[in-house]
Amino acid sequence: MHLNDIEMCDPIIQIADLDFAYHGQSVLQDVNLEVLEGDFIAMIGPNGGGKTTLLKLMLGLLKPDRGRIRVMGKPATSVSHHIGYVPQDVHINRRFPITALDVVLMGKLAPGKRWSKNAEQDRRDALEALDRIDMADYTHRRIGELSGGQRQRVFIARALVTRPRLLLLDEPTASIDSKGQTDFYLLLKRLNREVTIVVVSHDLLVISTYVKSVACVNRRLHYHHQAEITGDMLETMYPCTVEEACPVELVTHGHLPHRVLKHHKE
Amino acid sequence: MVEALQFEFMRNAMAAGLLASVICGIMGTLVVVNRIVFLSGGIAHAAYGGIGMAFYFGWPYLASTLGFSLGAAMVMAAVTLNAKHRADTIIGVIWALGMACGIILIDLSPGYNVDLMSYLFGSILTVPDADLWIMVAMGLFIVGLVAVYYKDLLALSYDEEFARIRGVPVTALYFLLIGMLAVTVVMVIQVVGLILVIALLTIPPFIMEKYARSMLQMMIGSSVLGVLFTIVGLWISYAFDLTSGASIIMVAGIFFFLNLLVERLIPDRRKSATSLIPE
Description:
Chain A is α/β, with parallel strands linked by helices. Chain A has one domain (11-231): Rossmann fold (3-Layer(aba) Sandwich). Chain A has helices at 51-58, 76-79, 100-106, 119-132, 148-160, 178-191, 204-209, 226-231, and strands at 11-22, 25-36, 40-44, 66-71, 74-75, 83-86, 166-170, 196-200, 213-218, 220-224. In chain A, helix 3 packs parallel to helix 5 (148-160) and helix 4 packs across helix 5 (148-160). Chain A is globular. The two termini of chain A are 15 Å apart. Mean pLDDT of chain A is 78; it is low at 1-8 and 231-254. Helix content of chain B is 82%, strand content 0%. In chain B, helix 1 runs antiparallel to helix 9, helix 2 packs parallel to helix 4 (84-108) and helix 10 (194-209) runs parallel beside helix 12 (244-265). Mean pLDDT of chain B is 88; it is low at 271-279. The chains are: A alpha/beta, B mainly alpha. At the A-B interface, helix 3 and helix 5 of A face helix 7, helix 8, helix 11 and helix 13 of B.
């Protein structure tokens, strides 16, 4: 792994020899990963390959069967409220009676903080977070009235309102059209100046332009650093695959900045 | 209507109906946004097992019914949390078993048999003062709990996973919610009957869900709608000499379908306004 980026210093996520099984079925095996501060990493791989599971392990929502996972130098479960999390949109009830502002305020909940003493400060922070992602005009809209892309922005504001150092996103562009996706990743790129980002996606558009590194997850994990992604740009498409890894297809009419990952060395 | 209120039983019926509306408006909002209508039905029916036990074993009525439905509710909550895909089936089984258990135990009890119809449709016209006070106390208790845990309940209802990450004690809170629901259902059934409880838990919140901008608005709106249905229903029941519980439900049902019809006929202005705004 090359450590040639200046802004990358400490590993914000450290995963060592991690195994995880669900109902006796191995989902992740022998996973090792170090995410450095300032990274913008995409986790790609087939459905059921363990991307979302790995994200939930990072969040401390699941516990590994074997191995170690540390976030910001501490066990994942003890720092989860310092992580900004943007869940998959599909799980959320769109008819729920709630405004964009109230969704963002939900990010202000903290362990043991029942009666917030500075509701006014919370509100200012929430408004500022909405402004930061260009959603200030939609503050008092019901969440169900927003488009998929707008809704994802609100979820990002909810994740950002506590100013986390780490932002985890689970397939954030699943319900956004391709124009919206471009805007969305531009926004993430902008946020990445201050925040380390891990985004789960099975969308190659992500890799092509915006991210700094790629982790291919299919039970095992293969990490590709930025230098490696850009290195083979002129070669035609190689899916990041050995026999078991991500079967990814890329269809294009040219003029796209192709990025190709090296074969996993095993 | 005013002349009807000269009678004490009418005043009590009105008070019971209004209290039930407010309690069900608050709990029903939580039921509808958490999509646990089926679970509520399960609790309400399984509670009959507790009534059977009270009769057969000669246990105190309220303690037995409350204990039995709290037990059944906790099992349902545990199944819903741990095996979501199986939850509806298990709830269906407990629903049926509790009811059957109650009926058989009452069959086996000597002497006076409780009337199943009064369990289903209640006896809102014969509510004693004591029951009204119990409902007032329960209403205050529920309003208090919901007020204290409002933000956490909101987070739990909207996005359970995110709530967990923000340190909300999701599991404990979910059991508390289901426990509150069990207590509500049992107490209110005593007064207005099972069918009216289900109707008040679901119809007003369902209508309000479309218009409310917050869970609090939905709770208040549902309570107001419930109160409206109760007043109109009781008046119809008095004027035309019809069963009171069923009349209230008919009013709610007609309003429900009228509302759906109006929604269909009048194009949703809010929706079209959003689509005009460029992203």
